[in-house]
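Notes from the pairing session

We agreed to fold both candidates in a single pass and log them together. This is the raw record for the first candidate, unedited. Please don't reformat it; downstream parsing expects exactly this layout.

Candidate A
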Amino acid sequence: MTATPTETSELTPLHALHLRLGARMAPFAGYDMPIQYPTGVLTEHLHTREKCGLFDVSHMGQAVLEGPNAAARLETLVPADIVGLAPGRTRYTQFLADDGGILDDLMVTRLPGEPESLYIVCNASMKAQDFALMREKLPDLRLDVLEDRALIAVQGPRAADVVEGLIPGAQNLVFMQGGDFEWRDSPLFVTRSGYTGEDGFEISLPASQAEAFAERLLAHPDCKPIGLGARDSLRLEAGLCLYGHDIDTSTDPIEAALQWSIGKRRRENGGFPGVARIQHALKDGAARVRIGLVLEGKQPAREGAEIATPGGEIVGKITSGGPAPSLGKPVAMGYVAREFSAAGTELAAIVRGKALPARVTKTPFVPNRYFKG
């Protein structure tokens, strides 16, 4: 059954297609979005792992930040090395508050040419705040918000074959690389990236072409539409953070086990919000850290469940949790005091007063299969 969008829900360019495909729709981040299709979340999840899934991520924020020294200027808001980013390369980073808390996470791609130009993709629920932050803090740069663009993710081991049929040359990209392409004389910007742990692409294209393009992708026998339910279970298996759940203003990148996203130059030289807190955590370790948990049995532990020692001492809280269809067992991520964070540590998730045995496990829970050439 399809839910009626609320009066405040915005519609993506693929909304009518979702309805024709029988999606169950629900409000998400201010948009009416497909949660699942008739085959269900489990089937969609496994199909993406085995073949190829198409995701509508047009609700995400897309913008181009342009002007003299745009990379260096953006570095005053994020801890990643943006200046060292080669043209056509993509990097994951975070907008940070003055105390080092995470305001949002985002992807930045340096576009070729002069003046310096950066393509930014940020979370749907935070995009208005992110755009306002850049306009306030970087008034000397031009921020072009791409309101008339759709964003389609194609993910899975068959993604390159599916995309190559419509975008010749896209399969020559490697993980975290982007480029300009065309389809029916319309400009596309394609990055080899995604949020499932699989090989895949994110394709930015004019909203007017999105439905026809998606239908062509779905005409491939290996490509099926995938809703937000499976997108969430896929990213959880991949050990990837969801903003507002696993990371927020109360967490910094070191607590969140995202120190890999902060380059050596930025760690040493700073120049971004919250640098003192982050340098301290890098030197001495964070008091609490994000971990992965694999639970015994079949019952999952959801966000908000407390994490305890086998003796009953509460040492943390789960931020994301649910079944891992690829593993056939429940998994979770959450934060615990550092002394309980080593892989192999035995803990428990408290669900309805019952302690479910669990073990700390390195993430990703399922090996990543990014194409790195």
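Candidate B (folded immediately after A)
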Amino acid sequence: MKHSVPFILLAGTRTGESSLVMHTLSPLWGRRSFITGISRKTPSSCFLPLSLLEGEVTENPRSELWRAGNLSCPEPLAGIRSNVHKNAMTMFMSEVLFRTLREGDGGDGRMYEWCRRSILTLDALESNYANYHLRFLLEYAGELGFSPMPEDLAPFAGNQFAVLSELLSSSPARAMLIPMSGAQRSAAASALLDYICRHAEMHPEIRSLKVLGELYR
């Protein structure tokens, strides 16, 4: 059986010169991995973090790793791909999703729809997006089912409690305007990650946070 499916690419693992295991989020299966062939017909931009893809999935009753083919990028995300800061942000966001979502999580489609909206919002923003990944983490906690109150973040916040409290109480637009240094953003992101990972009962290392911190010094 074949399915036409939209995907969000969280990460890719090369398995040879012409094949890739795609770790994806989709409305049909939530977090799930597929194998696909890599050819010159498929633009390399399709395999960047948080790419919005469409393709055909072929079920295989003899394997849990189904095949995806005929991939396309109907929404090229030009506002992200032309901007080094936004690309670093999507690298961070995709790594958080990749390392904290388990296979099968988000199978009701809501996580996919929220994530897609988040990507398209970042793509459309022309300025004042340096705090976007912090708002993303707060909303992600809500999507996972444990939206924090200020007192919930206090054990993780350290010196960033005032900033995190302001983020929580601000509208998405106002949150983008909260003044912060790069060091403050990195510390706030670390605190939010600690909160999310404690509740998700996992302890991944998010390596791209350091890259993001260097760009937003």
